[in-house]
Amino acid sequence: MNKVNRKILVGTLFFACSIFAIGGAAVLSDKISENAVPASVIQEQETPVIILDAGHGGFDGGCVSVEGVPEKGINLSILLRVRDLLEISGYEVEVTRDSDTSIHDSGVEGIANQKSSDMDNRLELFNKYDNAVCISIHQNQFTDPVYNGAQMFYSATDSSNEMLAKSLQKSFQVLQPENKREIKLCGKELFLCYYSENPTVMVECGFLSNPEEAALLNTEEYQEKVALTIFNGINDFVSGK
């Protein structure tokens, strides 16, 4: 484990054991021990592999905050924290990327072709296992800066997608008590969600077009809270809560 990852793991563990100054944060912290998957359960039944995707990366920065911060780095920071929480709770985890890179095939030229190859490789990992749960982490953006709050997108291709989306949206309502957003169906425009053969949700963690939310999402403290929120939503889905 490199120095960056050790720092993230230590910070995440410290966060998980703390009581935070926002409404509902104590509930989030308590759920680490409450919802962690016991080793005995993992041995007795097949626990799904968790596939985490940090949207964008490399030449593709994604959307940009009002302060000029690209989405790709925020997505990755949250993913690394979610990964650590899942692994210390007994899950097998794979990620599409763990650094600022595009995962297109070597030798592919042209931005459009590289983006297509990148998405194909992400989908290949999503469909690698017969029993997996797939989460794609993103940030939202809209022309009107008033909008804020996390929202889950899922495909109607399988009913489990909707259940996973509901679990994650419910978890975010603890972190964001004023968030009244509902889960939303997607179509083929969300390539990974639509063509994944496993339960899959795209998590839009917040709006980078909203100055207040963008400032929060660019802090390590809030990224840790978002990561724990995603972790709890995954755990609740896996445990059937």
Structure description:
This protein is an alpha/beta fold and 241 residues long. It is 47% helix and 13% strand. It contains 9 helices and 6 strands. The chain has helices at 3-16, 25-35, 39-44, 71-88, 111-126, 159-175, 191-195, 211-217, 220-239; strands at 49-54, 93-95, 132-140, 151-154, 184-185, 200-207. The protein has a 6-stranded mixed beta sheet with strand order 2-1-3-6-4-5, sandwiched between helices. Helix 1 crosses helix 4 and helix 1 (3-16) packs across helix 9 (220-239). Mean pLDDT is 85; it is low at 1-27 and 38-43.
Beta-strand share of residues:
5-15%
Number of domains: 1
Q: Do you know the CATH topology?
A: Aminopeptidase
Rg over CA atoms = 17 Å
Helicity level, as a percent range? 40-55%
Largest sheet: 6 strands, mixed
- Principal-axes geometry comes out as globular
State the separation between the terminal residues, measured CA to CA.
Answer: 33 Å
User: Which CATH first-tier class would you pick?
Assistant: Alpha Beta
Strand order of the largest sheet: 2-1-3-6-4-5
Question: What is the H/E order?
Answer: HHHEHEHEEHEHEHH
Number of helices: 9
Derived from helix and strand composition plus strand pairing, the structural class reads: alpha/beta
What would CATH call the homologous superfamily?
A: Zn-dependent exopeptidases
CATH architecture: 3-Layer(aba) Sandwich
Average pLDDT reading: 85
Total beta strands:
6
Low-confidence stretches are 1-27, 38-43
